[in-house]
Amino acid sequence: MTRLGLPDADAATVASLMAEADLQGSDGHGVSRLPQYARRIKAGGFNVRPDIKVVSDWPATALINGDNGMGHLVMKRAAELAIEKARTTGIAWVNSQYSNHAGPASLYASMPLKHDMIGLYFAVGNANHLPPWGGLDMLLSTNPIAAAIPAGEEQPIILDMATTVAAYGKVKSKALRGETMPEGWMIDRAGKPLTDPKRADEGMLLPLGGMEAGYKGYGLAMIIGLLAGTLGGAAMGRDVIDFNHDDDSVTNTGQAVAAINIAAFGDVGVFKASVDALVRDFRNSERIPGVERIFVPGERSQATRAARARDGIPIPDALMAGLNKVADDLGMTRLA
What are phi and psi of 302, to 5 degrees? Predict the structure, then answer.
């Protein structure tokens, strides 16, 4: 990142958040994006020295203009501002405009946890892969939502999900590993299952609910897009730039982060104890035959983090080749 022109502090922030994504198993949003980021930076698609500033400031809300900087920098700033405001207002909501891809949603929803706050995150995805329910025009993206709720003795509950059956980052990860996609992730324009991730451009993602109840995922994607994009003057619908194929256009990516101060609603310790009790009730509840354990949102990611912190982060051969090409292009030592 420094070789690409980012100031040292900004490069460290972006690199740290990318590594956090890989540690928790968000492989489609971590270092796998580095070749794409490098390509966009070299093409002028990112501003490596942005003037990120607040353009609308109310007691409990704000709008940040990211000046086309890397999304990690913009959203870290947005989360910090939401936390700061929520200390006095109880709840705060910050939108961003002229941001960019920022990695997994849970990174920013989780930032308020350290301050005994609940975090929420919404975003407009960086490419449209989803048509309106019953249509063929790609007017919606995966538009993710994340929520992070602190607990006491238990791990926090962290939900991070796309509004499609699978996030597009997972499609890209399958392609890097040379794997096929399960039926139900994508269909082609004739409505038939598409399982080759290298042919993803020929198809469309299915919304949450799949073929039977996809109107629910479609509706949720639209609402999140309005909240994260349209509300803050960012791109939505036809205005969304496909950053997978366009390296130099300004994407005007929209995101939103909210912080809810638990102390504004009651005793923090009592709340956390109640969350602990609820988690244990779920975990210890009667299971369907053949199910070994009931998980709550975030537990699998936490287990992945522990394993990868101990054993290292696996890098597929195709990704390693891409990273080494970036190193060669920048005149740096190869990783392997």
Answer: -65, -35
